Amino acid sequence: MSNGMDLPAQVTVNTASHSSGSETLIVRVDQPVEGIDFNVHTLLRGTDGGLITPTSRKVECRWFRSKSRRGCSFENCPNSNRIATIQNLQNGLRYCSNQCFQSAFHNKNKKSSKSSSNSILVTIDEKDRKFISVEPFQEENGWEIISNEKTYVPSKEDVGYILRVECRAVTPDGRISAVANSKETPIVVGLPKPAPPRSLFTNPDSAKLRHQMGMKFDSSKVRILSYNVLADIYATKQLYPYCPMWALSWRVRRKILLREILAYDADIICLQEVQQDHYTEFFYKELEGLGYQGLYKAKTRVAGKIDGCYTLYKKERFRLVESNTIEFNSVARAIARTNAFEQRNDALRRLLKDNVAQIIVLERLDGDMSHTQGGNTLCLANTHIFWDPEYSDVKLWQTHLLLQELERVVRNRKNIPLIFCGDFNSMPSEAVVELLKSEKVSETTKPNDPCNILPPVQSITHSLGLISAYEHVTGNEPRFTNYTGHYVGTLDYIWVSRDSVLPVSTLLIPNEKTLRGTDDTPLPNTRFPSDHLALCVEVEISPTNAQAQTLSMNQYQMQ
Ligand SMILES: [Zn+2]
Predict the structure, then answer these.
(1) Which of 160, 259, 306, 427 is the most buried (most CB within 10 A)?
(2) What is the pLDDT of residues 379-421, one digit of tens each?
(3) How far apart are the CA of 84 and the centre of ligand 1, in A?
(4) What 8-state DSSP symbol labels residue 1?
């Protein structure tokens, strides 16, 4: 940037009109966050008030940082971008609230075990603020120049300070056509620290079970992650008013999501609610550059932004053998064409919900089963079932259909092991989970079916022999996998073939106190970037063999 250096430090409106005639440059800034690209949003209007296309002008910026710290000095402050107005006159540190002041004070005393300043603590209450004061910030300290680039990435040193940006528009021949009023940002907030590590729970009976099942399991474990990452199109202020806007923004959430996903170091990743543009612009670049190979399938909605399922596997461990997708809309239309629905139009209206599923077959490259015929392949499925609680019939219809397709794929390949992940939008007590788990649906749990889309209850069955990995390892499904201000419940599951996949360990779901953190809010919040929690399990996979297929449910339950 050649002209950036000589921009005057104090820019006024006069300069703008002097240098240009009358183009107007309007600058808007977001919340700056440590480590996240911070772009200014600019709008340029010409002499006639019309918008000037950004390509015909180059916008140059210069960044400053305030010399005085503005944010709260308490390291666990829940209001990290609020101006600190309470000052400890003894050491000059400022806090955003009496609570932060006291917490910082307690922390300091704990660390240094100094009792000399106890006298301050006893004086702090709302009426008597002898040692604290409320003082406006003065500009006397001035500003320090920090960058001449258009995009600035705030550093750790910027946290707690505010930034100021000065921008100007330059024509292709180098003439300054407009200078914007300088703009101050909110206080730079630190990138939220990762949530505390989740503990890995290992089923103490898994070795015994392996022996009882009489099967040769492949001891090199496979780690599976299933995670609904909350698409940006659904991450609205209306749905999640308790989450600070900056933490809800995609530019911040994507960084925290990626950090979390990579930390699990899973061999197989099944993501749901991956927005299509974020797949191409972000996830694809980040994950497929790190040894993963992936397949993306968007929902079938035609208009507007859409999300979908994204299934990835580590290239060094697996090779893709076959891949299928299911578009539930297409299946519904195909069934309608055969006149199988009694109320054709009503049934279609009810069923066309755009949901999709992915079914792929992978060959293991590193297992010790490659000598066993068919023993080194497995089937992997990923889905996101329709969400609306008023549509339990549609959820069951989608799940039933998907299970039929999975049976076809698995049987065609001599009963290869199956791993089936997803957000099923169904609680453990609901028909969808009953079908997955017990291979049938009872009359009592069968949902209301206003458009007669479901077959007779005795035909809603399968024989895939599935168990839920979490329930198998811990004895129960998690208490919740979705934890928001308007809903708390278990909706996500990892299902595996009980005869050939042995779930060994799971990452436990954090407790409510950990989830809610110091800001005491449901999800998403500053440390948990989605409304769902990631499920992560380690399994051992056995080769397909005749013995495995003859194991009955009863034998299996004998522990
Ligand atoms: Zn504070």
Answers:
(1) 160
(2) 999 999 999 999 999 999 999 999 999 999 999 999 999 999 9
(3) 7
(4) -
CA distance linking residue 527 with residue 80, whole number of Å? 13
For 67, residues 6+ apart whose C-beta sits below 8 A from its C-beta are: 141, 142, 143, 144
Instruction: Compute φ and ψ for 197, nearest 5 degrees.
Output: -55, 140
Answer yes or no: are the C-beta atoms of 72 and 79 closer than 8 Å: yes
Distance 92 CA to ligand 1 centre (A): 15
User: DSSP characters for 160-178?
Assistant: TSEEEEEEEEE-TTS-EEE
- Return the active site residues: 423
Ligand 1 centroid to 64 CA: how many Å?
24
CA distance linking residue 512 with residue 529, whole number of Å: 15
- 66 Cβ contact partners less than 8 Å away, ≥ 6 residues apart: 141, 143, 144, 161, 162, 163, 164
Residue 156 DSSP SS3: helix
| Domain limits, CATH 2.60.40, in the chain | 4-69+137-187
Q: Measure 141 CA to ligand 1 centroid, in angstroms.
A: 22
pLDDT digits (tens, 9 = 90+) for 140-179: 568 999 999 989 999 999 999 999 999 999 999 989 989 9
Specify the fold of 200-557: Deoxyribonuclease I; Chain A (3.60.10)
Strand partners, 312: 269, 294
Strand 86-88 with 94-95, pairing: antiparallel
For residue 153, how far is its CA from the centre of ligand 1 (angstroms)?
Answer: 23
pLDDT band (50, 70, 90) for residue 556:
very low
Top CATH class of 4-69+137-187 equals mainly beta
Phi/psi of residue 55, each to 5°?
-70, -20
| Alpha carbon 532 to chain centroid, angstroms | 7
Q: What is the Å distance from ligand 1's center to 520 Cα?
A: 14
Measured distance CA(436)–CA(425) in Å, rounded:
13
- Residue 139 Cα, ligand 1 centroid: separation in angstroms? 22
Calculate Rg over the CA atoms of the chain: 29
364 vs 375: CA distance, rounded Å = 9
What is the H or E stretch that residue 25 is in?
Answer: strand 24-28
DSSP string, 121-133: HHH-SSS--TTEE
